[in-house]
Amino acid sequence: MGSICHFAILFSIQLFLSFALNDPTAEAAPTGRKLSALVKEQPLVLKYHNGALLKGNITVNLIWYGAFTPIQRSIIVDFIQSLNSPRTPPPSVSSWWETTEKYKSGSSNLVVGKQILHEAYSLGKVLKTNHLLALAGKVNDLRAINVVLTAKDVAVDRFCMSRCGSHGANRAGNGKARQAYIWVGNSETQCPGQCAWPFHQPIYGPQTPPLVAPNGDVGIDGMIINLATLLAGTVTNPFNNGYFQGPATAPLEAVSACPGVFGSGSYPGYPGQVLVDKASGASYNANGVNGRKFLLPAMWDPQTSACKPLV
Fold first, then answer.
1. What is d(CA 33, CA 145) in angstroms, rounded to the nearest whole number?
2. Would you list the domain boundaries of the chain?
3. How does pLDDT run across 79-131, given as a tens digit for each residue?
4. pLDDT score at 5
5. What does UniProt give as the signal peptide span (predicted)?
6. Which of 281, 294, 298 minimizes the C-alpha distance to 232?
7. How far is Cα 27 from Cα 94, in angstroms, rounded to an integer?
8. Residue 6: which region, alpha, beta or left (left: phi > 0; alpha: psi -120 to 50)?
């Protein structure tokens, strides 16, 4: 199972190293070269572990748990519909998603399927992992990704502590087949500095001013970042034997291997140079359907072995 979290400690370590290796006042090495010249950055490689990937036409079913407004739901639906909509102007959500085609076996065409509303909090407002699995199992379709989205007033096991969302696979049918699922929580009132950065100041590390959320909703725009991360991880590593680096129990995947990178020139605590909407002042790097704008994280490119931001 893959999970995502904005690791402030990692950012702090990276920030220290970036200053340490580029400090102009540092003593030169005996050869006359600075310390930074002695450190060669190793290419990032996500190894393919010979497992199945999710390719072809894939339905995305949405299970809404808790209170979401129609506008909030429409933002997330528009994002998913943008993934395979090439008619939007560049830089586009679809061009970001095209990077997944470079992972073995071609394209993953995602289409919004069923939407199930659980507005009455039928399982309560404190959910465990088994509750998420039960919600994800509401739709039985092996050619689908079931996405569970929890509202801002729903607490989920380890949410805001070690994860902002996760993906995995449910046993379906005869118990042998596996069905992919994703869970993402709305962090607006619980931990926006952890799970909605850079639209909120981080809990730790450099306190740079937050960016203005492109759809005017810090919680939902933060969910888009995490949903994008998990969708990319799901199609390229659905069953823990696809593309990843590190242990299968805590893998670095297509996007989670590129933490905190949204534009060129990024460094720990700074998301990089992104686009700014002149009318609203909102930051974005991808155009979507219905005039939507989104901020999407960098994705690892198998051809260049590097994290590739859209701008």
1. 52
2. 47-306
3. 999 999 989 999 999 999 999 999 998 999 999 999 999 999 999 999 999 99
4. 57
5. 1-20
6. 298
7. 47
8. beta
